[in-house]
Structures are given as structure tokens and as C-alpha cells.
Amino acid sequence: MNQNTRNWQAQQAGRALQAEVHSQMDLPHRRVKDIIRRGGVKVSGHVVMDPGFRLQVGDSIEADPEPMKLRTAQRKLLSRGLEVLHQDRHVIVVNKPAGLLTVPTDEDENEICLLGEISRKLRKEGEKRPALFVVQRLDRFTSGVITIARTPDAREGLRRQLKSRKMGRRYLAISQGTSSSYEGTITRSLSEDPRTMKMRISRREDEGIEAITRWKKLHVQGNHQLIEARLETGRRNQIRVHLTSIGLPIIGDTRYGVSSPWIDRPALHAESISFHHPVSQQEYSFQVKPPEDFLRALEAISIPAP
Q1: Which of 58, 71, 138, 241 lies 20 to 30 A from 114 at CA?
Q2: What 8-state DSSP symbol labels residue 118?
Q3: What is the phi/psi pair of residue 143, to 5°?
Q4: What Rg do the C-alpha atoms of the chain give, in angstroms?
Q5: Please, are residues 136 and 234 in contact by the beta-carbon 8 Å criterion?
Q6: How far is it, in rounded angstroms, from Cα 177 to Cα 273?
Q7: pTM given for the model
Q8: What burial class does residue 218 get, using C-beta atoms within 10 Å of its C-beta: 0-12 exposed, 13-18 middle, 19+ buried?
Q9: Which of 304, 269, 302 is nearest to 287 (CA)?
Q10: How far is residue 41's CA from residue 19's CA, in Å, rounded to a whole number?
Q11: 79-300: CATH architecture
Q12: Would you call 294 helix, strand, or coil by DSSP?
């Protein structure tokens, strides 16, 4: 902790964090915003990087006027919760936190992403030029387990399992809506809307790419439900689009589903994965529990945690 770090408690409900820090530390608004965005302010023990975050009376605030560099702060925030579940010379299995890209976008090759963070970890362990190959991807705001190949042969072996539908992938989603069915299989092809770049259900039988999702309600509370989804295919945004198409949109998903007061991202979590090791052929299975924001949303709608 910096010796100039200040600590106090908020006295006014609903006040923006930037305004609160400005009044307490007598610093220009621009400087305060920079401090917050660089991870220099904690509220009740948690780093908050949103200058507009609304405080509650009694919130404890800790502000460091000399925080880390912005990119370091972003990396620390995005990588929080990143966990390596398995690592060998051929395969790495990771629990990816929500908010972290799997790979950088075309617009910015230097974006902080999962592959970059794993590469940094391996370089720290002594590898000079670690090779990493994407086998599957998770959306930026989807949390959960994902595999990464370390050799071209391992990548091809895992891809063959995906293509032949021998890799098991189980997701959990919190949905809103009503449906008389409690389980089913969605076999609706997907295509990209050229105007919005969103995925959509194909309008013609000869259009789009095959997409198959098996789903089941695990718990129902009012018009919300905890859903298990298993992928037969792995198309972009597949579960999100498919569940919306049957009247069970995922909460927190402002792009395909419905907004929610309980979670600010799509409530979708890749809970488990199973596959055969591409070299040893040993069967592997990994399962990770949903993160705190997912569990809080379940608690808010009175659905027990899985």
C-alpha cells in the first residue's frame, strides 16, 4: 500500500465514485478518473474501475493516488479468476473469467486476451516462444472451462473430437420466459446478419451453418429457470441465439436476450468439458463452478446453486 493511500467511509447514498474521491482528495476530476480507471480505488475491499459507480452509505473507500499503469490494471482486472486446471506438453485446460477475450480481435492485436495471458505465464516459467493453438472459443463475457492446444498435432486431434461430437461440453444458463417443454434439442441453422454482424436463425433451409443444442431445465422459479445446455456443434453465440429462439432468452444478454438487474453480462457459464487426450488417449474431464456474479443472480431469483 502506498503511504499516501487514503481511507474513509461514504456518507452519501447514490453519489458517483468519481465525485466522492474528488471531494475527499482535492484532486482534479480528470486525475481522479485516471486513478479509478487504473485500479487505484477500492470500495469495500474490491477494486472498482467505473468512475460512475454509485456508492452506498457506509461503503469503505481506499484510494491510492499513485496506482499502477492502465494496461497493468486492466490485465489484473481481466485476469482475476483465471486458473490453469491442467497443463502438459500438448494441452492446457483453463478456467476463463468473464470479460476476458479468448483471442484478440481483428481491430487490436494487442488486446489483453486469454492466449496472451497463458503465453505470459509460460514465458515466466522459462519457455522462450510458447506455441498455443485455439481449439474452441468462449465469448468474451462467458465464463468457464476451455481447452488450448500446444502443438499442431494436438490441435488437430482435439478438433477431430469436436467435429465428430466426441468432446462433451456442458453449459449453465439463467433464462427468463415461459416454455411448456422441460427439455429438447434445437436444430436450427445459424447465419450472420451482414448489417448488424449478429448471429440469427437462418431464414431458409439452404442458408447458414448447422447448429445443434440439447437443453434441459434444471430448476424453475416463476418465469426464470436454470438451464443446462450441451453443444453438439460450436457456432458463434449458438446457445444465446438458440435459447432466445424458443422463448427462453438468457438474462443479462442485451444483444440476444434480456437485460437484468442482477447480472451485467450474459448469464452463461461453461461448466464442464470432457475429451480424450490427443496423444495418450486418456479420458479427461474438468468441471468448474459458476463465478460469484452468476451465483448472486441465482440467489436473487431464489434458485439454488448447482
Answers
A1: 241
A2: H
A3: -95, 165
A4: 22
A5: yes
A6: 27
A7: 0.76
A8: middle
A9: 269
A10: 13
A11: 2-Layer Sandwich (3.30)
A12: helix
Instruction: Kindly write down the DSSP assignment for every residue of 155-200, as one continuous string.
Output: HHHHHHHHHTT-SEEEEEEEEES--S-SEEEEE--EEE-TTT--EE
Please tell me what DSSP assigns to residue 56.
-
Per domain, the residue ranges of the chain are 6-68, 79-300
Angle subtended by helix axes 17-25 and 29-37, to nearest 10: 120
First to last CA, the chain: 38
User: What residues contact residue 64 under an 8 Å CB cut-off, 6+ apart?
Assistant: 1, 2, 4, 5, 35, 40, 41
Tell me the CATH architecture of domain 6-68. Roll (3.10)
- Residue 293 designated active-site: no
The tens digit of pLDDT for each residue in 27-76 reads 999 999 988 887 889 999 888 888 889 999 999 999 988 876 655 655 66
Tens-digit pLDDT profile for residues 103-159? 876 654 567 788 888 888 888 888 888 899 999 889 989 999 999 999 999 999 999
- Answer yes or no: are the C-beta atoms of 17 and 52 closer than 8 Å: yes
